[in-house]
Amino acid sequence: MSKIFSTRVVYPRLVILSTLRSQAFIFAICFLLSNHVVAIPVVDIHDRAAVQLLYNDVYQASIGINSQWSGDVKNCDAGNTSVAYKNAVLQRINYFRSMSGVDANIQFNADFNSKAQAAALMMSANSNLNHHPPVSWDCYSADGAEAAGISNLGLGTHGYQAITLLMEDHGAENTLVGHRSWIYYPQTQTMGTGDVDSSVFGVRPAHATIVQDENVFSTRPVTRDGFVSWPPPGYVPFQLVFKRWSLSYANADFSNTTIEMVDSKGSVINANIIDRSAPPIRGRLTAPENTIVWEPSVNPEVARGNSDIEYLVTVDNVLLDGVPTTFEYTVTAFDPSIIVDPVDPVDPVDPVDPVDPVDPVDP
Q: What is the end-to-end Cα distance of the chain in Å, rounded?
């Protein structure tokens, strides 16, 4: 049996995060959100400071951007949202991809955005979600129907908030976290977004993100960890350690896989497996890569204002090309409003020079 490990070292001392240390970077990100978005490098997930900076200055930078939605549901006008708002959505997508260890250079194109906007209008107008909407639907359009079939859809939410909810992927019909898996699917290069917001009284907000482009069946690129998981190995803001944990690996067989978890004190954590995809893929909307999903009995909220919390995860008996494989890694939930100041190593003490022997006293 092969084993794959992901490890890291922590030297914690708690210090309150200065609000001044990142002002220049925050300004730069806000500028990007108003004009254009650049790729986010895959973060060093074992560098607490790097993960913290990514959360505070990239994830948080999306908050507060106004959609300026120009549509009208009553007249079946899909309208549009502002460039800054679309970029805020894109930034949120690339944040999660960077954290997940896959290429975080997703781009939107105008055609995808237009079709996704039509899909969002249909979901809002009918106050329902459907990947195959009937022609009888209010505000039906061929473009909207096409987008609905290749999109993550959300109702009652919109924009960058929808991306986080899709990553969380709660609900009885989402036990295989397919929305999450499409957001960080390694092959994807192009997406599109559409939103109807709640600025008009009586309008149901809705969201669509086209997640399948022409690369959907292309060769899988190399990813940071081999597998793709959420939460990923390493440091993760406690706010984003969701109830459902998952691990995806192309063509893996999770039929007899077991999950074991322990905390930093060695206490066993119950990990309830709620779904797994085993070849052949079941005939329903599913994750793009074979995936196992579990719900551990953990409370990452405990990390708020406190020390980091470590969870050791062992995913055992995963069959890769028939070979039993074990993935073992540590997830560390932390409060991104607190930084850890590495303790400087103590300089080694120079050895004491040996004392010259004393000549014996003549008798």
A: 75
**Beta carbons of 211 and 189 less than 8 angstroms apart:** no
**Which residues are registered as beta bridge partners of 151?**
210
DSSP string, 172-201: GGGTT-HHHHHHT-TT--EEEEEEE-S-ST
Domains of the chain: 48-210 (3.40.33.10), 228-334 (2.60.40.1220)
Do 40 and 95 contact (CB within 8 A), yes or no? yes
Q: What are the Cα distances from residue 36, in Å, to 55, 80, 83, 102, 185?
A: 19, 17, 8, 21, 23
What is the helix (H) or strand (E) element at residue 124, kind and residue range?
A: helix 110-126
Scan for tokens 């899709």, then name that residue: 166
User: How confident is residue 8, by pLDDT bands cut at 50, 70 and 90?
Assistant: very low
Please give the model's pTM, rounded to 2 decimal places.
0.85
Comparing CA positions, the residue from 287, 283, 309 lying closest to residue 298 is 309
Q: E-assigned strands of the chain?
A: 2-6, 14-16, 107-108, 151-155, 190-196, 206-210, 228-230, 234-237, 245-248, 258-263, 268-269, 271-276, 291-296, 309-320, 323-334, 338-340
**Local structure of residue 253 (DSSP, 8 states):** B
Task: Give the DSSP letter of residue 285.
Answer: S
On the question of pLDDT at 281 being above 80, the answer is no
- Please write the tens of the pLDDT for every residue from 45-95: 999 999 999 999 999 999 999 999 999 999 999 999 999 999 999 999 999
Instruction: In the chain, count H helices and then E strands.
Output: 7, 16
